Amino acid sequence: MTGPDATNDIAAGAAALARGALVVFPTETVYGLGANALDPVAVARVFAAKGRPTNHPLICHVASADDLSPLVAQVTPAARALADAFWPGPLTLVMPRSAAVPDAVTGGLHTVAVRVPNHPIALALLRAFGGPVAAPSANRFGRPSPTRARDVRAELGDAVDLILDGGPCAIGVESTVLDLASNPPQILRPGSVSLEQITAVINMPVSATSSGPARAPGMLATHYSPGARLEVLAAEDVVARAAALDAAGTRIAVLAPTQIAPLPPSTLILGPAGDAHAYAALLYAAFRRADADGREVILAVPPPAVGIGIAVRDRLARASAGG
Ligand code: TXA
Ligand code: MG
Fold first, then answer.
1. How far does residue 136's CA lie from ligand 2's centre (Å)?
2. DSSP three-state, residue 45
3. Which class is domain 6-202?
4. Contact status, residue 117 vs residue 29, Cβ threshold 8 Å
């Protein structure tokens, strides 16, 4: 594998951002592929490295809630309350943008997405750089987000200039994206900050994520997909489905909250994942493990639809939609 070695050299990361280079950094959710958000040429490199359409907006990462106001038209009371409650943390706020934010970051939208990540390396990098860093997840377009530095290296290698290694990401699924520019506010992407937690802070109704067609550019029905075909099914259906696929010579993997038996001996067991938090932390690494092992089908039993389980189910649904 070529490409940069992973380091933890914050000063080198900040210097690379300042000269318009791409820096991969860990966050508590997934690894981000960062560029100076105020440099449209650097931002264009992010889209090229990912193979991502340029109308898909990026999240601006900042070091603290104090850095929000230059990026948005107005810091509303709701935004202030949410920032106080959840930052640093896995909540991204979409708000009307200021003129400081380049079109390259927002895909030409009148809104901008901002968050303060809760990871010591990300925060140190943002402080050392001293400006907003536009960063999507550090995967190729449509693929699962990386939760380990080595996954970034395997997937993006030469396309990035520096990889900061923070070990495995604690949460494992991307941040909750809350659109504060719509009325009522709407969760565009579920994450580990739940709708109930948000409404408890802002004391107004919030719409849940709608299923179906794209809600914003970059929110596709199909996304996060492993190379293997993902089938989402109930625990009680796994044994029969696994037996049928195995009998047809299909190489399968199984991911479920609890142990399932009996399975064909050749099955790659990716779990048991345990509770929804553990499931989220395991999810994308499990997808990559199945691919590395040449599995053709992953049978996945979703966690219960509460808390971060809602986010895991959303990712499973999107990862399976493309077949
Ligand atoms: O946890 C995360 O959010 C990770 C880490 C690296 O921070 N980042 C991440 O970025 O998942 P990305 O680009 O893979 O996903 C950003 C999501 C996209 O679904 C995009 O559509 C949405 O945020 N988004 C960004 N700007 C938006 C805007 N102005 N309006 C609506 N949605 C927006
Ligand atoms: Mg992504």
1. 5
2. helix
3. alpha beta
4. yes
For the CA of 175, the closest atom of ligand 1 is: 1
Q: Name which of 144, 143, 147, 151 is nearest 1 in CA terms.
A: 151
Q: Where are the domains of the chain?
A: 6-202, 229-320
How many Å apart are CA 65 and CA 323, to the nearest integer? 40
Range list of H helices, the chain: 10-18, 40-50, 77-86, 103-106, 120-129, 149-156, 195-202, 235-247, 276-292, 308-321
Give the whole-angstrom CA distance, residue 276 versus residue 127.
Answer: 32
Q: Region 170-186: what's the mean pLDDT? A: 97
Cβ contact 82:178 at 8 Å: yes
Cα 243 to averaged position of ligand 1 atoms, centre (Å) = 39
Q: What is the pTM of this model?
A: 0.96
% of the chain beyond a pLDDT of 90: 88
Ramachandran quadrant class, 256 (left: phi over 0; alpha: psi -120 to 50; beta: rest): beta
First CA to last CA distance, the chain: 29
The chain-wide mean pLDDT, for the chain, equals 94
CATH 3.40.47.10 correct for 229-320: no
- Nearest ligand to the CA of 95 is 1
Contact 164, 125 (CB under 8 A): yes
Query: Within 6 Å (CB) of ligand 1, which residues are found?
Result: 27, 29-30, 32, 56-59, 90, 92, 94, 106, 109, 111-113, 117, 135-137, 174-175, 177, 188-189, 216-219
Ligand 1 centre distance from Cα of residue 237 (Å): 34
